[in-house]
Amino acid sequence: MVYPSTKKVAIHLVLIVGSLVMVAPFLWMLFTSFKSFAESMQVPPTILPKVWRLDNYVEVFEKVNFLTYYLNTISVTVGRTVGQLILCSLAAFAFARMSFPGKNVIFIALLSVLMVPSQVVMIPSFVIVRELGWFDTLYALIVPGIFSAFGTFLLRQFFMSIPRELDEAAKIDGCSYFGIYWRVVLPLSKPALVALAIFTILNAWNDFLWPLVVTSSDSMRVLSIGIASFQGEYATEYPLLMAGALMASLPLILIFIFLQRYFIEGITMTGMKG
């Protein structure tokens, strides 16, 4: 019988402890979502609920327009993700595969945007949205987020790892630049596109400050704001808060589980060539 080495045992113990630390908050959220309000405030706290209350999940939909929040969040997430995949991939293709005057200067200027905190440009962005008449509409929630300097950089790095000989072969076959982009580069960039999609989905789904600024009516609220409404001035309805947070988190967890292979591959491959 071959016994594992001490080093492997130690590594696995560290990984197990780390996994438990990461999973513990999620389990606490899950168990609290089935408790009564009195039990959630009990001192010392209990881990498992004495009576499992499924009514908490029904009450979430009764107390707030949770379904409306969900549909708004899905619309914003899909709009931003599709927009970034299209615009960022087009810009990245231009920076990675085309030659034009000032390309490096423009790319450096684009990267400098990453050093500017989003809060700095929030007021100018709000003024533009208001002047366009988009306040309290889906346009205000989606359009400002359909382009990303980070997404352009991520895809540009991946596109540069694709052999340029493929471009020459496509040109011989009569492909234009757009044909090379659509028929050659994009099909080979699936991992990077999935990685960008996951980043965009996470940011759009969890966005709180921008939707809070550009919306005022309850019908335009998103999940992050709707869930925060369970936190009152004098008391917080923790079971309802946790039930709403759990239902809001499940789509992201499922997306990452099914797409994690492409996500890891895309992040790894983007650093192969500068």
From TrEMBL:
Main localization (coarse): membrane
Keywords from the named record: Cell membrane, Membrane, Transmembrane, Transmembrane helix, Transport
Any single GO BP term: transmembrane transport
SUPFAM superfamilies noted in UniProt: MetI-like
The UniProt record lists the keyword Transport: yes
Oxidoreductase found in the keyword field: no
Family of this protein: Belongs to the binding-protein-dependent transport system permease family.
Protein name, per record: Sugar ABC transporter permease
Source organism per UniProt: Novibacillus thermophilus
